[in-house]
Design goal:
This protein is mostly beta strands. The protein is built from no helices and eleven strands. The strands form three sheets. Strands 1-2-3-4 form a four-stranded antiparallel beta sheet, with no helix packed on it. A hairpin with a 4-residue loop joins β10 and β11 (124-128).
């Protein structure tokens, strides 16, 4: 930030990026995209080390990572669902349904194992993932 110099650019997404979040330890950044993927980028080796995709094609509107850095969630604009993955294994753990419009934002509670989601359906939902 001192020099405002860009030292790396990741260009693997095929459509607009809709969200970015750092892992809690700061060694990776995750991004969601309208191309339907969440990509994890290593900030030490400067490479895409994981690509997460929902079971059916959709556009992703937001991304969040839990305080442990193990669980990644992304919200959908087309199916109105939230997808939950294990970052280490890339395994889809769950699909959360309940909103009736696109997911606008998701955020993990930093002290409790819950996820909050906001939607264009004018609701905020609190999810107990564990």
């Amino acid at each position: 930030t001192v020099s405002s110099f860009c030292f790396v650019t990741f260009s693997e997404h095929k459509a607009g990026i809709t969200g970015v979040v750092f892992t809690p330890n700061g060694t990776a950044v995750l991004s969601s995209s309208l191309d339907g993927t969440v990509r994890a980028f290593d900030l030490i080796r400067y490479k895409n080390f994981r690509t997460l995709s929902p079971p059916t094609p959709t556009q992703l509107s937001c991304v969040a990572v839990d305080p442990s850095g193990e669980i990644v969630c992304a919200g959908s604009t087309l199916q109105f669902e939230i997808y939950v993955w294990n970052l280490q294994t890339s395994k889809l753990l769950d699909t959360l349904a309940g909103h009736t419009a696109p997911i606008a934002m998701i955020q993990f509670n930093p002290v409790q194992p819950t996820l909050a989601s906001a939607s264009w359906d004018h609701t905020v939902r609190i999810w107990d993932l564990f």
